[in-house]
Every structure is written in structure tokens, then in C-alpha cells.
Amino acid sequence: NAGVTQTPKFRILKIGQSMTLQCAQDMNHNYMYWYRQDPGMGLKLIYYSVGAGITDKGEVPNGYNVSRSTTEDFPLRLELAAPSQTSVYFCASSYSRDGAKNIQYFGAGTRLSVL
Amino acid sequence: SQKIEQNSEALNIQEGKTATLTCNYTNYSPAYLQWYRQDPGRGPVFLLLIRENEKEKRKERLKVTFDTTLKQSLFHITASQPADSATYLCALDGHTGNQFYFGTGTSLTVIP
Questions:
Q1: Which residues in B lie closer than 8 A to residue A40 (C-beta atoms)?
Q2: Contacts of A56 in chain B (CB under 8 A)
Q3: A106 and B34 in contact by Cβ < 8 A?
Q4: Is the Cβ of B4 closer than 8 Å to some Cβ of chain A?
Q5: Domains and CATH numbers, chain B
Q6: Which of A18, A34, B24, B109 could form an S-S bond across to A46 if both were Cys, CB 3.0 to 4.6 Å?
Q7: pLDDT digits (tens, 9 = 90+) for A14-36
Q8: C-alpha separations of B57 from A81, A89, B60, B63 in Å
Q9: Chain segment A44-60, per-residue pLDDT in tens
Q10: How far apart are alpha carbons B35 and A103 in whole angstroms?
Q11: All domains of chain A, ordered by start, with CATH?
């Protein structure tokens, strides 16, 4: 199994440009997450989804949007890129069930620079 | 809001010794706590989960303790090896269990 796949691996954007970070999982997990990780900092939750058609904001949602039309895919949209969005973005998925709740499986990350 | 603190300084230890990493939290009572390992340029990988009613959990050379009174978890790696060198993150679940809050991580280097 591929697990959690993120594309692209690297991207450079100009200020004001838009882009979509793709995330797909093949584990039939119901929960999916988007985090950003800045140097020397922990992971900050941007958005999450508990199932297809359901999304909710995390700690740092401003400047981002998400959608979850299928169980497998959870794209993250940046509409007007700003230098403050320079970061490494991680997508994760988990299967919530009693006794083994929310062990998260992460993708390899997307390194984004906004110049 | 939740505040999670891990050893701010990088930890360097000699091969064969026991590494002990600390995770402290405030303003919160999580139902469980997780530890992840992250290698440079890669996503975190799950290691261990411990619930609030468990004092200790073991997996091979790894041991986690969870003291809800002190609001602290300790992560131990016994008989450490250079391959254990990585950043280790603790994570706490949110009130609904849908959100997670990660610490900043502790960088561990095991010196041969």
C-alpha cells in the first residue's frame, strides 16, 4: 500500500499566486488532517475532516481552504499566497475506532516557499 | 489554550545509554498521549500511545510513562543506538478527539 501520498514535494510560489496541495490515502481512513511545520516548531493543525463532506478548522486555518468530496482525497487550497505561508505541509490520515483511536499516518510532506 | 513543552535543548547521549525525553502540558487533560518519531525531510511516524488510565507502556526498547497529576509524559529509549537519532514529538488529543496538538519536538543524537 502507498499509504498517504502528497504532491508536489516542492513548490515555489510568488506572492498572490494560488495553488492546491494534493493529498490522497488508500487505507480507507475516515479522518484526514493538514498540518504545517515551521522550523523549530511543532505541527500546527490547519484543517481536518472526519469523513467525506465534513471539514472543520484547526488552530491556523486563515489563508487556507479544504474540501473532502471522497474518502481518499483531501486537497488543501492556498488562494493568495503570502510569505507567512512558507512552511512544510504534512497531510495525515487516521482511522478512529474504539481502543485504537487516531493513530496518524503522515505523508512525506510538501515544502512550499512563497517569495 | 493547550500548551505543550518538550526538552527545548537537543539531547546528545552515548550509545548504549538510556535517553529520556520529556513532554509537559498545561491547561488540559487529554484522554491519551502519543509519541512520534520524525527523521529529517520526512513525515512523523507513530511509535506509542498511552491512555490517561495507564501509568506505563512498553514496546521493545521504548517505554512511555504518563503522569496526569504532574501533567507529564516521559519517553525512554534504552540501550540507545545511532539509528535512534531523530526528532521525537509528543501529541495530545483534543477535547473531541478529532484534533491533535503536537509539541515542538526534541532532537536526539546518539553518539557511537
A1: 104
A2: 98
A3: no
A4: yes
A5: 17-97 (2.60.40.10)
A6: A34
A7: 999 999 999 999 999 989 999 99
A8: 43, 30, 10, 6
A9: 999 999 899 999 999 89
A10: 10
A11: 4-114 (2.60.40.10)
